[in-house]
Write a structure and sequence with these properties.
Elements lengths: L1 H18 L2 H6 L2 E4 L2 E4 L10 E2 L4 H11 L1 H7 L5 H6 L13 H15 L9 H14 L7 H23 L4 E10 L2 E12 L2 E12 L5 H14 L7 E5 L4 H22 L2 H14 L1
Parallel strand pairs: 4-7
Antiparallel strand pairs: 1-2, 2-3, 4-5, 5-6
Helix pairs in contact: 3-4, 9-10
Bound molecules: zinc ion.
Length: 282
């Protein structure tokens, strides 16, 4: 019990001492004899240091080098140890950053580097993002769900840009299916011309969980094309692998197209009319 009390007193003394400057502490151990100053830190020592004029800095250096133990006890040493224990002072920096920029970088990491969406929820990522979010402003936080929403929005923009590109163009569709580790995907690419340049755009990479019948493939292809605002009569050609179901799916799409054109024949006159007006207005 007694040690505990003396210990806490010691700490209190240390704190009180550390609040004083080295100069203030040192002055207690410098004797004055008129203008002359002399060392009196250790009355038991033979130290005879006298200086014609008081220069506290000199005495502090003297105490530290010649009376190190007492210097430590009286708090005259630079406290390297205790300063290391102090919380590191992290400078605040001014950099241009806003919410939009943060979202953009996070989305890029997921979209371009194949990081899982859940990486946003990793503890380590949170540390970084929370720090940045704090700089951006209160109420901004990230999680996998928010990242997913942003990704979907970004994908939507890309999709509508591709749809705009393909509008009123003849499109060549390339279909390819692949399987690995019991997962089956159907990849649908579109090939078309923009200003005499052939471009290829991926319209969809669909995971097919059902059995890949011709009807199912046809439906998946149709859904993808219509989601880009495409109509079957825009399809100039279809390139597929030799899979029987794939070939059958294309045949079914062809039938659909024939039916479509038969239906459209009914209002072909109307189409002609509108074409004429378009040419006239041009
Ligand atoms: Zn001395």
């Amino acid at each position: 019990m007694a040690t505990k009390i003396s210990g806490s007193n010691g700490n209190a003394n240390k704190r009180a001492r550390s609040a004083r400057t080295f100069t203030e502490i040192a002055k207690d151990y410098i004797g004055l004899d008129g203008e002359e100053a002399f060392c009196k830190i250790d009355p038991t020592s033979e130290c005879k240091l006298r200086q014609p004029k008081l220069d506290v800095g000199n005495f502090i250096r003297h105490f530290r080098s010649q009376h190190p133990e007492l210097s430590t006890e009286y708090g005259l040493l630079k406290e390297f140890d205790s300063s290391a224990k102090k919380a590191r002072l992290i400078p605040k920096r001014l950099v241009p950053v806003d919410h939009q920029l943060l979202v953009e970088y996070v989305i890029k990491m997921i979209a371009n580097r194949n990081l899982p969406i859940s990486f946003v929820d990793w503890d380590e990522t949170k540390l970084l993002l929370d720090r940045l979010s704090e700089a951006v402003g209160p109420g901004i936080s990230f999680n996998g769900k928010i990242a997913k929403n942003h990704l979907q929005a970004a994908a939507g923009k890309v999709k509508s840009a591709i749809a705009d590109e393909m509008k009123n163009k003849l499109i060549s569709i390339k279909l390819d299916s692949a399987s690995r580790h019991n997962r089956h995907v159907l990849c649908i690419n579109a090939q078309y011309c923009i200003r005499d340049e052939i471009v290829i755009r991926t319209l969809g990479i669909l995971e097919i969980k059902e059995s890949q019948t011709a009807n199912l493939l046809k439906q998946k292809i149709m859904n993808t094309l219509t989601s880009y605002g495409m109509t079957l009569d825009q399809v100039f050609s279809m390139v597929v692998d030799n899979g029987a179901n794939m070939l059958a799916a294309v045949r079914k799409l062809k039938e659909e197209l024939v039916m479509l054109s038969l239906r459209e024949d009914d209002d072909s006159e109307k189409n002609f009319e509108s074409n004429d007006t378009l040419t006239a207005s041009l």
